Every structure is written in C-alpha cells, then in structure tokens.
Amino acid sequence: MDINNIAENTIKLLSEEINLENESKLYNMSRHLNKIMGNVGTCEKSIYRKKDEIKITELFCKIEKTVESWENIWTVLKHGDITYKKICDFLIYWIYDKLKNVDFKTLQINKFYTDIQRVIKKDKFNHICFNILNNEFYRKYVKAYDRKVIKNKKELYEFLEYYNLIKKRLEGRTSNQEHYCNYVKHIFDVYEEMYDGYISKGLEIYYKEILLFQEIFKEKNKDLQFVEKNCPNRCLNLVFNKNNKSVCSLSMKKHEINAQEGKKTFEIPKTDDFLKNLALYRFYEELYTAYDFNNDTFICSSMQKNTSKNSDFRVLCNNLNLILYEWTGLLNQFKTHLDENECCNYLNYWLHEKLIGHPFRKNITKMLYIAWDLMNTNNSENIKCSHKNFDVNENQFKKKKKLYDFLGYYKDIKSILSSKETLNTKQYCDYIKNNFGLYSVMKHEDMCNKSSAYNDELTAFKKVFITELNNLKLVCPGRHFELLFKDESNRKTLEPSYAHEILLQNNDYIMDNSKTNFEITYFEELPSYKKYEELNKHNNIDKYCGDCKEILILEKDTPGIYELCKKAIKNLREVIKKENCNEWGEYFIYWIHDEKGKIIRENKINNIENYMVKLFDVFYRIMDHLDIKNCIYYYNSHVSLDKWKEMKNLHDYFKNYSTISSCVSDPTKNNCHIYCNYVNYISEIYKKNLKECCIYYYGVDQVAENRCPSYFICDKENNPYTLLSKLECVNHPSREEVDNIYDEATIDRNVKLISERYNKQSNKSIYVYEASNSESEYDSFHVIMLTAFVCLGIFFTFFVFYKFTPLGICINRKILKKNRITNKYENRFQNIQKNKSKNSRINPQSLGVLISYQSV
Which DSSP category does 740 fall into? Predict the structure, then answer.
C-alpha cells in the first residue's frame, strides 16, 4: 500500500464504486475547476522567467486564471443547499491540492497567496468569500508555506467531506473494506500529527481542520465507536487518549519487526571508485568479507540463549570474535598505512555502521560490548582493541564516521596528489573540499548545540590539517580550504564602516591607512554609518543558529553564508522587530546585498543566487513569524550586484544629506570639505540614475513622477550638486551644467498623456524596462519633425505616380478637357490679362507636370 497516495487512491476508488459527481459537491467543484484549468492556455507571466521558474509560474498563473472564472463555477454550484462559505472552502482546498506536490519557494508562494486574495477581493466575490477577505483570518488559517502542512490540511478536510460516503461503504461490507480502513487509519494519523503540531509548535493554521475533526469523532462518540468497530486493531480511539499509546504501537508493529528479522544483510557500503584502491577501503573490505564467520562460538551462543533478540546479534558477535582472535595478523597486514590505534577506531566505526537502522540497535550494541570485554579477557595476545562508545544518534554517527574515514583516505590521497601521476586530481580535490565542508558543518553544529558530539573527529581533523593547508593550496588551487578551516572567531571581519566601503568605490579617492582618525570621525557621524555598524555586530549571533540549520550545509560551497544567516536573524529579531520597522527594513535589504558582495569577493566565485534564495526563504519564514514581512523589500535576484550597490549608495546618501548639509552651518566644524570626495562620487551615480528614476514636466516645478521611491528622492533640493557648492568643493558644476542635467529628465506633459491614452486604447502589452533612458518619444520637437517627414513622404509618393505612371496621363486629360471648356467662356478675359505671365486658374503644379510629359 502506497501510504503517500492513499488519499488520492481512495477517492478514485470511491468514484468508481458510486457516482461521486451526484453525491459530492466537493468532487463536482474540483472536477469543474480542473476542467477550466485544463483549458487555460500558456500564461504570459511565465514567458520571461528563468527555466527553473517557468513551471511553477505557469501553474500559479493557471490557478489564478481559473479562480477568476468564478461566475462559471457559481453557475454550476448555486443550485442545492450548499452555502457560500462552503464553496469558498472548496476553492481553498482545491488550491491546496494543486500546491501539495509542487516544490515552490517561500517568496513564490507568498506572492501567489497575495495574488489569489486580490482576485477574491473583487466585487463579484465580496458577498461570498467574506472570511478570506479578513487579512487576519487569511494569514492565520489559509496561507500555508510548508508542503507537508498543505497536504495535511487538504487530506483531513477532504476526508471529513467524504466521511458519510465512506461510512456507507464500511457498513455495506465492501470488498475494499481493508483499503477504506487503511485510509481511515491514515487520516487519524494525519490528525494526530496536526494536533501535536498545534499543541507543541503553536501551528494555528491547523486549528480549523482540527476543530472540524473533533466535532465528528470526539464530541460525537458514536462515530468514533463506529470506525473502531468496522476497522478493528488500529487503535483509532487512542488519538484522543495517549495513555496506552505505547502498548498499542508495540502490538501493531510486532508483525513488522518479525518480518524484518533475518532479512538484515551486511553488505559493503557504496564507495566512490577513486577510493577503492586506497588502504582504508581494503581494510573495510577485509572486515566485510574475510571475517564473515557465522559458526557459533561459546560466548556468542551462550548470550544468544539468554536473550530474545534476533539472530543479527549472533552474526555480528561471531564476526567480532574472529576479528579479535586474528587482530595481530590484521594489524601487520595494514601496518604500513594504518597504525594500531587507527585500526581499532575503524573497527569500532565498522561495527556500529552495521547496526544503523536496526530496530534493536541499542540493545544489540550493549550485548556486543559485554561480549567484546569477555573476548579480550580470553585473548592471550598483548595487542588488544577495546570498544568505543558512540553516545550519539544515527545521523550524528554517520557524519562522525564519514569525517574520520576521510582522514584515513587522505593519507593515501596526499601521496597520490604529490606524485602528480593521477588522472583523478579533480575528483580527489573535490572530495577533500566536500569533507572540509563537512568539518565546518559539524563544528558549527556542536557550537550551536553547545555539545561535544563531534569532538574526537574535529580534534583529529585539526591535528592533520593545521600544517597541510599550504600544501593543499598547491595541489588543489582555487578551492579556498582556509575559509572553511579557520575558526569563526578568527574569520576576517570585513569593514563594518559603510563610509569606508563607499569611499573605496571612488577611483579618485582611496581610503587607506593614511587617513587620520579625525577624518574618519566625520563619517562615523553619518546616520547610515551607525545603522550598518549596528547591523554588522557579531555579539550573541550563536543564539540564532537553530534558525539557520538548513543554511549550514551551504557553508562548504559558500563560506560565510552561515554566519551571515545568524547575523541577519539576530537583526530581524532584535533590531528590526524592536525599532522603526520600515526604516531599518530598508537598511537591512541593502546591508544583505553588501554582505553578499563580500562573500563573493572573499570566495572569488561568480554567482551565489541559488544560495541567496534559500537564505531569503529562511528570512521570510522568520519575518512571517514576527509579523514584520511588510517591512522588508523582497529579494530580486535579477538585479545585478553593481546595480544594488548603486541603489544602496543613493539610498544612504539621501539619509545622510541633512547631516552633511548641517555640517556647513555648524561653527564647531571646520573640515566639512572632507565630505567632498564622497558627495562628488554620489553626484556621478545621481546623474546616471536621474533619468531612470525621475520625470519632470516643462513649466512645472514639482516632481512629476518618481519611479524609484525606495532609494531615490527626485526633489531637486536634495541634489548633490547643491551640496558640493555648499561644501565649497573644487570643480563643482555650475548652475547651467546642473540645469542641463535636469533638462535631460524633463519631458512634455501633453505628449506623455496622449501617448498613454493611445497605448491604453490600442490594448497592446508593451514591456518596458523600468529604467528606460529614452525620452525622445515624448519630446514635442521630435513629434513635429516626424509629422513633417510623413507629409513630405506622401507628397513625394503622389508626385512619382503622377509623373511616371498612366495615372498621370488620365489626370492630365481630364484637366486639359476642363481647361478647354473654361477657355471658351472666358476667352474675353484673356485680353485683359494678356500682360500677366500665366492664368491664375491653372494649377502650376499641373502645368509643370504637363510640360514635362509633353517634352517626353
């Protein structure tokens, strides 16, 4: 039975046995929505997405367009006793059904929920989905970000809707009774998981489904008795009474455990091919094959008789006995590669690895230790190996063994790489890099949990590589092992000073050690300096390592990202949550991109967007929990790092403007010119971004439009040119030069309005880059010139047809005929005007054409 798809398979089975379309409004609405969605064509939203985003964007778009077809849905479902609220519930759970198997990111699903709520808020929904319009209700009980949560909510609600139909099938003793009972048991397990999440983790999003479930099976006890009677031996009643849960669990699992006994095989774990010629692999291979001895020994058979445990203990016990009996010979076989202590350690790791996943792992381990001690007592050899206690869980043990195995393999790898005679250099170097990453993960995990679970392996690793880094840089260049190996306390702390970083960007002014503390003090007074200094603080960041567990694994590829995660979570929880939310939120997003740039420069890598998206997934979950998600701008991976830097610098300049400007009027400050180089740098990027961000109209003093309100102020009073003049900086631009800069961002308002009206009427989708720097289409001069050229073109075309085609002959004949008639009646006037050069009634253009024609 496929437990993952049991809910879907049961509904399919139910639809085959009865006519669900007539029996269930939920089923009917789902089919109708699926039909509408199937007829939705390709969505324009997905056309300009990255390849890995097209599928999810297409799905979200199709769902949104389906929901917009509300009138068609309502027409089908309005008959009968179904309520408005019920239909809206059906809609939400249909959406869940589409989302439950989709690998979306937090940012994507959050935008999707916002779009769906926007659609539902339209007028035709207002009188129906009133609950969803309530933002608090929507946030608490509808917006689910975890796929497991979505699946649980959908399955439990769906079961409650179909319960009466399933109840009839169980009463009728259908041939599929066992399947329906398994489905009921599955749903009770889902409810138990949801209830535990609601109680222990405070997951309010489950509240609605839990309440509906309890109304049927807890308050109406007869329904619980019914499923217990018709689906026996499933302990369904214990979801409301956990006192006897352990007894029930043991009885249910007994047959599963019995089935597993005797089936456990001890095969050599899969190992990379490039490691199979190394000494440690041969050592493990020897333990798995040469010492696979199943004949009973006295110690093992005696202990087996006194225990009810399965035969796996006997097999391992006999293997261990033979290994210890021939221990000296095994040491001699590998003595050139592994010393006595290392061999003993690897024997312990080997033995414990065999028990990973075993239901009686702890008990068998204890018995093996007792047997091991007895074997050593009976062994006459002086060289002995003792058991090693691993007081850790299975996941921790896997990491311990993997890292310690690496140290054994590295002995041979070091010699191979030094000889430069291998074709597997890249594989060996990648393998080393991966294990440096594992070391970093284990180190941070111990630090986060304030434990010493990995202390032995971490100590052994440090002992080997404290003197090996220089050698590794030579044989495996570009891997930056040192970034993963150094202690976090010794990690290079990049300048927290915002001002220093800005000044370093200016080619004309380099901030170096020659700058005095006096000069630096001026920049420390800037508001942005203080903000970034606060965001960069490292103190107490380990308090938040638990929030960054899923980022820890990324540390091996992007050293520094885990530390950034902890610092960011600290800022979200301690700074942004407690201070001015919107103001700190702006600084936070620019600070993050600044830190991202530092990681890229430090690791000398080109792109870390995939890692940053995962990092922001963590941020958004925390922000949602703290209810501060509206304070932070969303992360946009399509904006280049250089563009983010410009945006950050401009944002900070406007925040610093008042402080720098007031410096001039402060009699206690005589060195305000120190800001000149900084403001001059800002003036360059200000000019570059002015046309992208601001629109001004001719004859209007106020700003017409600000396209970049998050980082740019279009009010001319805040421009850096005025500030350069106030600071009396060298070579500051003249008033005329400043006016010319603003003229480039100034357009004709009437032309713009006409253009917008035309675009709206034509109903064309025009995609324009936000920062388009082309304003010629709005310039009145260009409009006049364009009109003149069009008229000239029409005239020239008419002239060519008239002069060189039969059409001209036809026109000329008509004109000549008309002229003859005219001359007959007006002949007497010719004498009066004989002194005039030509007849005023004759078209000069026609005459010209006629003369040309006759001359031919």
Answer: H
DSSP states of 73-140 as a string?
Answer: HHHHHSSSS--HHHHHHHHHHHHHHHHTT----HHHHHHHHHHHHHHHTSHHHHTT-HHHH-HHHHHH
Residues 513 and 484 in one domain: no
381 and 421 share one domain:
no
Query: 105: which 2 tokens?
Result: 């990111």
Q: Is residue 272 part of a domain?
A: no
Phi/psi for 706 (5° steps) reads -115, 110
Q: Is 312 left (phi over 0), alpha (psi -120 to 50) or beta?
A: alpha
CB distance 231 to 185 below 8 Å: yes
Is the Cα dihedral 395, 401, 407, 413 positive or negative? negative
The confidence score (pLDDT) of residue 307 equals 57
Of 378-382, 571-575, 614-618, 773-777, minimum mean pLDDT range: 773-777
204, pLDDT greater than 50: yes
Q: Considering only CA atoms, which of 643, 660, 651 is closest in space to residue 713? A: 651
Place of tokens 């007031």: 662
Spatial strand order of the sheet with 746-747 comes to: 705-706, 694-697, 746-747
| Tokens at 69, concatenated | 């077809």
| pLDDT tens digit sequence for 667-704 | 778 788 888 989 999 999 999 999 889 988 877 666 66
Q: Calculate the alpha carbon distances from 433 to 270, 410, 437 in Å.
A: 20, 12, 6
| Domains: count for the chain | 5
β-pair partners for 697: 747
Q: Is the sign of the CA dihedral 804, 806, 810, 811 positive or negative?
A: negative
| Cβ proximity of 402 and 435 under 8 Å | yes
- Flag whether 773 is in a domain: no
Q: Is 489's pLDDT higher than 50?
A: no
For residue 161, the enclosing domain spans: 3-258
Residue 74 tokens read as 């309502």
Question: How do residues 780-837 score in pLDDT, each as one tens digit?
Answer: 555 566 777 777 777 777 665 656 666 555 555 555 444 444 444 344 434 434 443 4
Q: Two tokens at 117?
A: 């709520």
Rounded CA-CA distance 27/37 in Å is 15
- C-alpha–C-alpha distance, residues 385 and 244, integer Å: 44
Q: What is the 3-state secondary structure (H, E, C) of 549-607?
A: HHHHHHHHCCCCHHHHHHHHHHHHHHHHCCCCHHHHHHHHHHHHHHHHHHHHHHHCCCC
How many CB atoms neighbour CB 294 within 10 A?
A: 9
